[in-house]
Amino acid sequence: MNKNGIFAWASFFTLLIGIALVLLGVLKYRDYAIGFSTVGIGFFVMSWAFNALKGRV
């Protein structure tokens, strides 16, 4: 597995964690939905950054 594959898998897994956090905040922990959603969006941004780094590092 080369570095592009590693960045692709890292991007995919951080995207899944971000989706899970947002859904947890919206569906299960409504009192903390803002915090969960903020952290989930942060994971989306990290996923985007990992995806943007493919082929450049």
Describe this protein's structure.
The structure is a single chain. With 57 residues, the chain is mostly helical. It has one domain (3-53). It has two helices and no strands. Helix 1 (3-28) runs antiparallel to helix 2. It is elongated, with a radius of gyration of 13 Å. It starts with a helix and ends with a helix.
User: Number of helix segments?
Assistant: 2
| Unreliable stretches | none
Number of domains: 1
Structural class: mainly alpha
Query: Which percent band covers the strand fraction?
Result: under 5%
Reading the helices and strands in chain order gives HH
Cα(first) to Cα(last) distance is: 15 Å
Any idea what the shape is? elongated
Number of DSSP E strands? 0
Transmembrane segments: 7-27, 33-53
Keywords: Membrane, Transmembrane, Transmembrane helix
InterPro entries: CAL67264-like
What topology emerges from the helices and strands here?
Elements: H1 3-28, H2 33-53
